[in-house]
Amino acid sequence: MRLAEFIASASARIIAEWEVFARSCVPAATGMDLEERRDHVAAMLVAIAKDLETPQTEHEQSEKAIGNGDADVGNDTAANAHGTDRAASGFTPMQMVAEFRALRASVLRLWSGAQREVDRTGLDEITRFNEAIDQLLAESTARYVQDVNRVQDLFLGVLGHDLRNPLGAIMMSATAMLAKEGPNWPHVKRAARILSAGTRMDLLVGDLLDFTRARLGGAIPITRKDVDLEATCRQTAEEIGAFHPDSAVRVEVTGELRGQWDGPRIAQALSNLLGNAVAHGAPNAPITVALRGEPDRVEVSVHNQGDPIPEEHQHAIFDPFRQLAPGKSGRSSVGLGLYIVHSIVTAHGGTVDVASTAHGTTFTMRLPR
Questions:
Q1: Which pLDDT belongs to residue 250?
Q2: Which of 93, 176, 202, 367 has the most crowded Cβ, counting Cβ within 10 A?
Q3: Banded model confidence at residue 30, pLDDT cuts 50, 70, 90
Q4: 225-368: what CATH class?
């Protein structure tokens, strides 16, 4: 009997054996009843049988082998539905793979037991069956990963949002105590330390919220207005200098620097780059912010001296949660600062890159007017 015919006629037996195998691989307390899981397997068996009965050229087989025939993650397929439900039920990746291993083993064991011998046609069918299983696994895993990542991002967004209120209360209380008690208050240093730590935490929470916005919405939202970039950059440099009095920040400007941008977002991106330069730059070496106005864009570069970024790390430095060595303070960040810089610049239709050698490190933002 052809493998496709066997799958169609013996689907109940296949599912029953798969279920026994799957029970040993997948914990029962997953929040999904067995009937629902059987329905998913039945639908995938139908898809496999249909695949086996569809003629396939050598080119189509090679394309399928490298994943070019996989359904889009947004399509309504049995495998995608499987991935969504497993993500919602708390399956781990290993449990996901175990289900497909069980299905593969069940089909091949039962079919081979029903065959007297396997000829060349049967071997070709086994090959195509394995390709079909691998395709379903790839599709299901892609949807599973997408859904799990989305839930994680939503959790981070809710966490960041809910941290803002208690953190704001702490900062307001510290500010009020400092204003009321004055500089001679015995606990002024402690209150100032609380305010400083709260300010740092607020920046980290802001990065976390921007990260989730970028991941969930595809881009950080911006509001364009007429902006004098020189004024924005000088103010940001002054704020960094006040927060880090041991670091000298120089601003150099050339050309016309007005355009349509989101000023606060550009200031945020520059602040992140300057914070990175302060943390990783050479002690007592100045940091240079250079603004150059060109006909259709403005370039903003931040240069610091210090150890170069290893070349093998430069291509991924704007990825989220990428952390290099801790800065001069000995503390490492959560690794979102440069990702947010990239997201802000991209939202403006611009580009950002890094060049790092023994002569120093330069980050350059190119912002269309």
A1: 93
A2: 367
A3: very low
A4: alpha beta
- List the structure tokens of 137: 């696994």
Mean pLDDT check: name the lowest of 54-63, 207-216, 327-336.
327-336
Six-digit token string for 289: 């912010």
Residue with structure tokens 């200031």? 267
Q: 320-350: buried (b, 16+ CB within 10 Å) or exposed (e) per residue? A: beeebeebeeeeebebbbbbbbbbbbebbeb
Q: Where are the domains of the chain?
A: 3-153, 155-217, 225-368
What are the tokens at 110?
Answer: 């039962």
Average pLDDT over residues 347-357: 94
- Number of other residues whose CB lies within 10 A of the CB of residue 56: 15
Secondary-structure class of domain 3-153 per CATH = mainly alpha
Predicted model pTM: 0.56
Distance of alpha carbon 143 from alpha carbon 155, whole angstroms: 18
